[in-house]
Amino acid sequence: MTFEQINRELYQFPGGLNLRTYKELTNSKESLITPLPDKIVLPLQQHIGNPSEPLVKKGESVLKGQKIAQASGYVSVPVHASTSGRIIDISTCPSAQDQSVQIPCIIIEPDGNDAWFELDPVDDFLSIDPEKLQNLICEAGIVGMGGAGFPAHVKLCEGTATAVDTLIINGVECEPYISCDDRVIREKADYIVSGTRMLQHAIQAKHCVIAVEEDMPEAFDALNTLIDDDIELVKVPARYPAGGEKQLIKVLTGKEVPSGGLPIHIGIVMHNVGTAAAAFRSVTRGEPLLSRYVTVSGNVEDPRNLQVLLGTSVSHCLEQVGYQQRDNEIVIMGGPMMGEHIHDISMPVIKTTNSILVTSEFNRAREMPCIGCGDCVDVCPAKLLPQELFAYSRAKDLNQVRALHLFDCIECGCCAYVCPSNIHLVQSYRQAKKDVAVYEKKHAEYEHARHRFEARSERLNFVDDRFDKNKTISSEENPLVFEDKGIEDKQSYIQAAVERIKQKRNKKKIK
Questions:
Q1: What 3-state DSSP class applies to 37?
Q2: Residues 6+ apart with CB under 8 A from 229
Q3: Which among 359, 369, 380 has a CA at the least distance from the CA of 240?
Q4: Which of 359, 375, 407 is the last residue of a domain?
């Protein structure tokens, strides 16, 4: 007996838009496995947090699934070879998050054998200690595959540190054109349901919900045949951006994640359906995260969802769907609302790449002054003041943009979509976030230098006090200072120190 949505009350999140989805271009077609490319480029930072550190050298041979870079901190995950081959370079490539930034990468020349590294699968994941399960998921390089790419194990560890009421598996794919989650649910529903139970065990959640949009009936039916009363399957209204973490929590529970807070602060942990499937595969088959579903759509001959090896170039993916380059078109990594225009299609697909979109409907119109209409306020799902954020972002008033909760902005693009003045609002917010990050880094360096200077000043004052003939510090006042040792002044003390150093050097020479 399956357990469908019966008594769950759904809520509305503020703002949002009803958009044409264009998902019919790809969601009804079976996904294709992308052929092996001529080159694999694996960036060492494919997620939020610290980049990985290389474990291999140029010229080495590697096997598919072999760890080639290790995590460099708690908020970091390893990187594994997507196929077997030879390391031809350890270099840099543009970051998918900021193309102006170069990040380290490992480049593999495939040997065509696709030979696997030795795997170590686990048969019964429910018998594994939750902390060990978290570690297995971490070592498999699993990150969130529906958003910014937060390392999955971090959320899981937070779950065991704090009581979790509800685990939400997010299958709400609200951005136009993107249907990779829809396809992975239809084709790998068993992975997702089993992966959901695995993640629930890993964080010991009391309740578990899988949510899909109401315009994904085939995906809903695929899941509904596999779930039992331990998992609640829910349809949510198709309104953009219902798939946002805070927005979906609001829809399902009526609760709001506090400003600057995390879902765990209200007893909730959320993961994407792709993350659940990848976690299950990594534990039960021993395979680390090496590939993902990517929607390739827009102005191409055969829009399709592809199963792509990580490190495959965007250009190689476009070749599979009959892409012909035209002067008036651009390529976006991501969707039309939140994606970014990429200038170099040799960039690799990474763990967070959910879509590649070719479009001519790109905002090239000239910006006009803000007319104060307030449309952006009405559609903001985070209840922010976009026009004020824009003004202070442009003015570089970083204190004020933080006071206006800049970092609560999810960069959904609703404000820019409705702006009659064609203002590039989201780009301004992204730049402001970068400016704040740079400022905070410099401020932290300044504070570190100041503390060092103050500590040095205290040490120098301590020495001055020690040799002040008019002041006597006893060992009772300061155990580190002893009373008169026969040193009359600073000069004699320094001379004695010099003599000791000379004696030590002479002893070394004699030896």
A1: coil
A2: 1, 3
A3: 380
A4: 359
Rounded CA-CA distance 19/142 in Å is: 31
Give the pLDDT mean for 358-375.
85
The radius of gyration of the chain's CA atoms, rounded to the nearest angstrom, is 28
Examine residue 485 and state whether it is found in any structural domain, yes or no.
Answer: no
- Give tens-digit pLDDT for 54-70: 999 999 999 999 999 99
- Give me the helices (H) in 349-397, please: 375-379, 386-394
All residues at 6 or more sequence positions from 445 whose CB lies less than 8 Å from its CB, including other chains: none
Which CATH number goes with the domain that contains 61?
Answer: 3.40.50.11540
Closest of 91, 104, 96, 90 to residue 50, by C-alpha: 104
- Read off the tokens for 390: 């824009």
- The answer for residues whose C-beta is within 8 angstroms of residue 267's C-beta and 6 or more apart is 162, 163, 164, 165, 166
Instruction: Name the DSSP letter for residue 30.
Output: P
pTM of the model: 0.85
- Tracing tokens 């070719």 back to the chain, one arrives at 358
> Whole-angstrom Cα distance, residue 246 to residue 244?
6
163 belongs to a structural domain: yes
Reported confidence tier of residue 495, pLDDT bands at 50, 70, 90 = confident
- Residue 236's H or E segment, with its range, is strand 232-236
CB atoms within 10 A of CB 35: 10
Measure CA 220 to chain center: 27
Co-location of 243 and 345 in the same domain: no
Residue with the two structure tokens 């609760």: 255
**Residues 251-281: tens digit of each pLDDT:** 999 999 998 899 999 999 999 999 999 999 9
Tell whether 83 and 177 lie within a shared domain: yes
Which residue range forms the structural domain that includes residue 299?
294-359
DSSP per residue, 280-347? HHHHHS---S-EEEEEEEESSSS-EEEEEETT-BHHHHHHTTT----TT-EEEES-TTT-EEES-TTP
Q: Take residue 308 and report the two structure tokens written for it.
A: 């792509």
At residue 417, what is the residue type? Y
Region 326-343 average pLDDT: 91
> From the CB of residue 25, how many other CB atoms can be counted at a distance below 10 Å?
17
Three-state DSSP class for 477? coil
**Cα separation of 300 and 136, whole Å?**
39
Give me the sign of the Cα torsion angle 200, 203, 209, 212. negative
